[in-house]
Amino acid sequence: MCLAVPSKIITKNNLLAIVDVYGARREVSLVLLPEDVEEGDYVLVHAGFAIQKVDFEAAKETMKMQLLYAAMFESEEEKMPKAGLEPA
Amino acid sequence: MHELLKLIEKLSKTIARKLNIMEVCGTHTAEIFKHGIRDILPESITLLSGPGCPVCVTSINDIDKTIEISRQDDIILTTFGDMMRVPGSRLSLSDARAEGANIIVVYSPMISLDIARLNQNKKIVFLSTGFETTIPLIAATIEEAEQSRIDNFHIYPLNKLLPPALNFLLDSKEIAIDGFILPGHVSTIIGSDIYEFISSKYSIPSVITGFTADDILTGIAMLLRQIYEERSDIEIQYSSVVKKQGNKKALSLIYKYFEPDLAYWRGIGLIERSGLSLGQGFKHRDINSIFNIYEMDLDEAPKGCMCGYVLKGIMTPPECSLFGQKCTPSKPMGACMVSDEGNCAIYYKYRSANFLKK
After folding, report:
1. Which residues touch B281 (CB under 8 Å, ≥6 apart)?
2. Which of A62, A67, B98, B326 is the most exposed place for a label (fewest CB within 10 A)?
3. Residue of B16, B188, B339 with shortest CB distance to A51
4. ipTM for the complex?
5. pLDDT digit string, tens, across residues B246-275
6. Minimal-distance CA residue of chain A relative to B132
7. Closest chain A C-alpha to B113 CA, distance in angstroms
8. Structurally, how many domains does chain A consist of?
9. What domain range includes position A12?
10. What predicted TM-score, i.e. pTM, was given to this entire model?
11. Closest CB to A32 among B25, B222, B249
């Protein structure tokens, strides 16, 4: 029931916007958004309401950090197999 | 996401013990099965499904009462489509509509207000279900009704709050959990700070996770890293929309119109402050304040239905004797078999791949 879909704002008129959701156009309310959005921004839409602005940069950063850790873990394991990696 | 899967394998080997990881959002459960994630994880990792489906935890009595209300001549009931087939003690809303009850499925609660404007001589009752993702929308609808003086709009309040249910689940100690995949969209509204008790009281690591296969694998990798580093933090993988403080505007709107209340979760029981009732000044929006049909006892599950154990992650759906025999999506006995996000319905849908494995 908590399904929500990132949607692109096509036009905006005060607290109403027309968004593109996978090619379909829908009217959504912006009253719940904590920050301003512009045409072209992406918002997360749930049952006719935008509930948050989508920050793709933050998502990329999180993924980058995890991949970095994966690479680090791998190289460390090669250097000193098992040692220092005792389970709790 | 080869790198992440490799990381998961390596971390789980290093941790070297069995791990129970619970997801508490029906959308996560559905995606995990859709992408076959259970099958590609190391054997030491078991994914459990928790009480993450608001449809599934709605009580039989509330369905019965809603049906009773929808049968009155001066009532139009509006509801999300997910609720239509949930079995009451005798009928579902879908059955009641076939018998003539005035029930309209809406995509957004706001549509109820259009219906109210067009039907001034009737009371419009929105069956208000859903977790924190959905609640702000309902608060916004009530606000619009208040501001535009749409007096014939009411709700039947059945919304539920997730953190008190998690606290209840952990408190009962019925199941050992090594990590939580926390819901992405509920947390978009409530943020990550509110889950602090999972870390401080129970020392269990958690990651608020998005819904793609990559997101879920990343979330699991982040959990394993925490377990390996002996941390129990509340981390955010779904950083594109989840902030530590959540959506404050949505939260303040919720608590403008609602206050926490005792709520009954189907199959689980009564949980303190896990539901919402309308606050002072707005009680007239609650249909129960106008129209009290009758008080009923807390409901009993249909004979043999193990919904409660399934919702708590103690049993998997195939362990229930009704599963796939007397209880199927086309003829559900328990609510978990109804919703697309119900644990039983998901297991049933993907049973060819998973039936034998359980």
Report:
1. none
2. B98
3. B188
4. 0.89
5. 999 999 999 999 999 999 998 888 999 999
6. A2
7. 13
8. 1
9. 5-79
10. 0.91
11. B249
Q: What tokens were used for B108? A: 């957004």
- Determine the distance in angstroms separating the CA of A2 from the nearest CA of chain B, rounded to an integer: 6
- Give the CATH number, domain containing residue A38: 2.30.30.140
* A51 reaches B (C-beta below 8 A): yes
Q: State which H helix or E strand residue B95 sits in.
A: helix B93-98
Cα–Cα separations (whole angstroms), residue B158 to A82, B262, B274, B276, B291? 52, 11, 10, 7, 16
Domains and CATH numbers, chain B: 1-305 (3.40.50.11740), 307-349 (no CATH)
Element of type H or E holding B21: strand B19-23
- Provide DSSP, A41-81: -EEEEETTEEEEE--HHHHHHHHHHHHHHHHHHHHHHHHSS
- Chain B: give the shortest CA distance to residue A31, in Å: 8
Q: Which residue of A has its CA nearest to B159?
A: A1
A34 reaches B (C-beta below 8 A): yes
Quick one: CA torsion of B267, B273, B279, B280, rounded to 10 degrees? Answer: 120
Would you say residue A11 lies in a domain? yes
Domain membership flag for residue A85: no
State the angle between helix axes of B248-257 and B135-147 in degrees (0 to 180), rounded to the nearest 10. 60
Beta bridge partners, B181, equal B23, B207
Write out chain A residues lying below 8 Å of B131, CB-based: 1-2
Neighbours of A21 (CB within 10 A): 13
Model confidence pLDDT, tens digit, residues B184-239: 999 999 999 999 999 999 999 999 999 999 999 999 999 999 999 999 999 999 99
Residue A23 resides in a domain: yes
Nearest to B239 among A32, A34, A58 (CB): A58
- Is residue A30 situated within a structural domain? yes
